[in-house]
């Protein structure tokens, strides 16, 4: 039924106004409900994300049980500062790491962060299996590490850095202060270059009858000497030998002259590096370049020689470079937690953690800021040779790098190493002139490199 009122027009206006108001109220109410629901859902999603933990797997190489407490405490500290990340630490024997890593990559079960030596890491780079650190880290983050450490995990063409250096070791010169005094030499002024070492060796031999200098020719050492003398081992693309230069010839001539003039033991051609350590510990030689880790062995086996030992920066040549060994951290591309892995790698290599690790063993930090710690700058009261060695080595790090680096090609490296040694031996024994020996080494290197393309 329709009622027609006297003022029907006015009433219709009131009804329309009321209906519009009710409709607007209902719309606003619905919008409010939708907004509250969305906020509730968003908050719930955020809470779920905040409570969700990432678990990353971290592999180290043979650090248990010696460093179990250090690594575990560091992980606990990291997790407390990053409550959304859990670290599963797996320690792998050194002999198994390469095969386990290859198997993990092949089966797509690679860990998120791995302590991987330089040589083997290169193989994974050739498989494009590792994150490019030069893209994942800012320039500022990369610049916190010693250049030599980063270079060790950089491709030969310098285009890709694939690892973060963790801990380093370097070579230093140990010298017997008592023998120096007997020869009338100043023990506070040791030789710093190969040329100075030859002069000191001559004086010590004349004054004491002992050998002043023992430059081991074991393993890759002749190749390191070549780089120290200022001769590159390979051309820019790594396809040919590059050491047939005046500097390379000088290196061959230098060792040939030492040998012919009886300023180094003739057995040096067949002795390994261990023999040099034993001869130094026996007090038979005055100068020996080696890692500071051997000082502990000398202290135990020859306390009198240890007491007389001083240290200086490693002897070098024209290049001014010192040799460095590097252990680092890599992140497989398969990792689904790359950002968390990078965060852990940066935490492991921060100054505080690196200094603490260095205090447990004879290693050096890769982080430049860590070297500013008093542990590396100030001698304790009544310092021992190991304390002096630590301070000395810290000063070398800016000018140290991996001098012999064939980027993981072990087979080629061994062949090249042997070819150079064979040629040097012929020169020292007088079978070839130094010039002929360098040319023979160059020719053999080029054949090896051509056959392994």
Description:
With 453 residues, the chain is α/β, with parallel strands linked by helices. The protein folds into 2 domains: 169 residues, Periplasmic binding protein-like II (D-Maltodextrin-Binding Protein, domain 2, 3-Layer(aba) Sandwich); 197 residues, Periplasmic binding protein-like II (D-Maltodextrin-Binding Protein, domain 2, 3-Layer(aba) Sandwich). 51% of the residues lie in helices and 13% in strands. It contains 20 helices and 11 strands. The strands form 2 sheets. Strands 1, 2, 3, 4, 9, 10 and 11 form a 7-stranded mixed sheet that branches. Strands 6-7-5-8 form a 4-stranded mixed sheet. Helix 19 runs antiparallel to helix 20. The termini are far apart.
Report the end-to-end length measured between terminal Cα atoms: 101 Å
How many β strands by DSSP? 11
How many structural domains does the protein architecture include?
A: 2
- Report the total helices: 20
Within the CATH hierarchy, at the fold level, what is the topology of the largest domain?
D-Maltodextrin-Binding Protein, domain 2
Helix content: 40-55%
Mean pLDDT: 89
Low-confidence spans? 1-21, 23-50
- What top-tier CATH class of the largest domain fits best? Alpha Beta
């Amino acid at each position: 039924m329709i009622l027609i009122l006297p003022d029907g027009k006015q009433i219709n206006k009131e009804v329309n106004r009321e209906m519009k108001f009710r409709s607007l109220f209902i719309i606003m109410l619905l919008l409010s409900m939708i907004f509250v629901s969305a906020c509730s859902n968003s908050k719930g999603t955020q809470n779920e994300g905040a409570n969700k933990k990432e678990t990353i797997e971290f592999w180290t190489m043979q650090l248990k049980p010696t460093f179990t407490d250090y690594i575990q405490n560091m992980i606990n500290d990291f997790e407390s500062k990053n409550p959304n990340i859990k670290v599963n630490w797996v320690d792998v024997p050194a002999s198994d790491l390469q095969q386990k890593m290859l198997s993990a990559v092949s089966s797509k079960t690679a860990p998120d962060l791995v302590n991987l030596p330089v040589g083997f890491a290169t193989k994974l780079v050739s498989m494009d299996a590792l994150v490019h650190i030069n893209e994942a880290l800012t320039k500022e983050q990369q610049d916190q590490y010693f250049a030599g450490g980063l270079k060790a995990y950089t491709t030969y063409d310098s285009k890709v850095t694939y690892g973060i250096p963790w801990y380093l070791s370097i070579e230093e010169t140990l010298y017997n202060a008592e023998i120096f005094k007997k020869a009338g030499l100043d023990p506070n002024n040791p030789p710093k270059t190969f040329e100075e070492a030859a002069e000191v060796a001559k004086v010590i031999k004349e004054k004491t009858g002992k050998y002043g200098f023992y430059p081991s020719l074991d393993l890759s050492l002749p190749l390191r000497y070549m780089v120290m003398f200022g001769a590159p081992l390979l051309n820019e693309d790594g396809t040919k030998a590059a050491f047939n230069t005046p500097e390379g010839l000088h290196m061959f001539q230098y060792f040939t002259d030492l040998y012919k003039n009886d300023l180094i033991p003739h057995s040096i051609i067949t002795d390994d590096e261990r023999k040099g350590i034993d001869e130094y510990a026996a007090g038979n030689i005055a100068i020996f370049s080696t890692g500071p880790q051997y000082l502990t062995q000398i202290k135990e086996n020859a306390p009198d020689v240890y007491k007389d030992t001083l240290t200086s920066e490693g002897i070098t040549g024209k290049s001014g470079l010192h040799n460095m060994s590097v252990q680092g951290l890599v992140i497989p591309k398969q990792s689904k937690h790359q950002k968390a892995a990078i965060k852990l790698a940066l935490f492991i290599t921060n100054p505080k953690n690196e200094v603490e690790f260095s205090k447990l063993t004879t290693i050096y930090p890769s982080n430049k800021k860590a070297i500013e710690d008093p542990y590396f700058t100030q001698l304790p009261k009544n310092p021992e040779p190991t304390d002096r060695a630590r301070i000395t080595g810290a000063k070398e790090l800016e000018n140290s790098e991996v001098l012999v680096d064939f980027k993981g090609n072990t087979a080629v490296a061994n062949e090249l190493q042997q070819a150079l040694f064979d040629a040097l031996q012929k020169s020292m024994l007088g079978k070839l002139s130094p010039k002929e020996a360098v040319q023979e080494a160059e020719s053999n290197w080029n054949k090896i490199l051509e056959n392994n393309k």
